[in-house]
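User: Hi! Is it possible to get a structure for several chains at once, not just one? Here's what I have:
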Amino acid sequence: MKITEGLRGAVRRVDDCVWEIPAEAKPGMLVPARLYASGSLLEQMDDGVFEQVTNVACLPGIVRASLCMPDGHWGYGFPIGGVAAFRADTGVISPGGIGFDINCGMRLLRTGLTEDEVRPRLPELIAALFAAVPAGVGAKGFVRLSGAEFRQVMVQGAGWCVARGYGWPEDLAHIEGQGCLAGADPAHVSPRALERGMEQLGTLGSGNHYLEIQVVRPGAVHDEPVARVLGVDGPGQIFVMLHCGSRGFGHQVGTDYLKIFDRAMPQYGITVRDRELACAPFRSKEGQAYFGAMTAAANTAFANRQVITHRIREVFSKVFGRDARALGLTVIYDVCHNTAKVERHRVDGRELELVVHRKGATRAFGPGEPDVPADFREIGQPVIIGGSMETGSALLVGTARAMAETWGSTAHGAGRTMSRAQAKRRIWGETLIKDMQARGILVRAASKAGVAEEAGFAYKDLTAVVDTLHRLDISRRVVSLTPIGNIKG
Amino acid sequence: MGRYTFLEDVALADCAVELEGRSLDDLFETAAAALARLMVDPGTLTITVERTITLESAELDMLLYDWLSEMIFLKDRDSQVFPHARVQVSGQGPYRLAAEVQGGTIEPGRTALGADPKAVTLHQFALEQVPGGWRARVVIDI
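Assistant: Yes, the chains can be modeled jointly so their relative placement is included. Here is the combined structure:
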């Protein structure tokens, strides 16, 4: 990808925190590109964002605009923070618009514990979680599956786990798509993907994946009535946040189909500006096969987070000497941020079936939507935004404005501003771990270098991202969460 | 062996690497070393495993894609990393690779872990012959 000069200069403000690059800015653009950001966040976006969001605007069947959320940064194919909807009948599906880590996502558990109860046991708790949830390169999970069982996981997702005792039946209602997306087809999954992922159920991975113990600080509840509905009692309450995806299984599905699409494009007369945007018509043989395999990987990611939830409950139960139910360890929500889903949205006054790609972007359905759990339907779908391991995360809810403006989508994190190598040059992993411990955040990591890569200064200010989302009204802030313990790959 | 350089300002959350080799074989061997360095500190890996790998691809650049993807696959399936490789690339399309690789199994507590690569992307992916050898650019999803 060669950076096109002048794209940043072509950005025009169209509303408060809404910016547009017109379709005339680059040959081949079918729709404008829209960036949702404050002026400051827009300035922090690297040139790759402008190149990639306009490349996506060139893909066949794209509807209305190619979107980028406030945490956008240079990815591969789509920008991270990219959202695009394609007509299901005439548009495409692109693995580069989903990412290799299919259904990478966030899960948030509440507890009935307070920081006063947890802090004295924190070293023991972190050590036990680090032992129970394998992390880092080459890690294997504790669930042993046959090929037939793994195929069941692909179709049933988190429900497979609950049926075998890895979770509670009520967990499922609080997972996007009830933890099982329709359309998964193991017949379109390669034997290599099966081999690669079969022993990884219940593993965290590495990079920016984590398991975190968090607390609500005084003043961090921004909307008390909504917070109460979500299970937030108030300051001092402990939460557990999980960020991981479909592991090697999903990565292999992405690898397999990127090659298939790269070869298939000429037969459909499609050319792309970046080979990572390789795509095929959604209704084509290749498009449907990928959708079946990708959905299988998405369901496996739900299963992965479900199995880890089971381990978290076991550990809490052992450390605090009480049943996990007595500890109030319930799932608030589990939401994807790397998927393509078939959804119905209103376009020019009529409902259309669209394939909505979210790459580093979170679904944020508003109040009243049937896909929002019944107990949250009045307040909107919970949105979990992971910040850096130093600065904290946020819980928000989706809005009607998001439905109208961004295909019911919002940001997924703080967004990087610095490369991994730059971050490692600024601080040693061990130094950062000691610094964080001095500030009351206990870290256990499989890779010390990986800790340095995830330092808070490598990310944008999460508060600025969340404030922008709130100002845009594409999601509303409910509570900010501060880390006190972190497990990293 | 050739040379590899991790690039800092490409795809911030991922890892871009530029590879240079005196020959195609050298470039592929350098690519394996770079990927292994990304995953672990090779000095903390006990070299105990030898494998033979053969691959075939209609396009030369996709042979490099397949080669690196194979290493990532073995990392996940067998928890093995291969810093050392002797590679022979032949053919004019299809292109063939025959390699003898040496490496070890990741040992928790002993092996110093780095990043856990997910996949080789085609973003800015390039393999080209240059004066004095071959050069490639690869962005790896972390």
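The mean pLDDT of chain B is 95. The radius of gyration of chain B is 14 Å.

User: Great, thank you!
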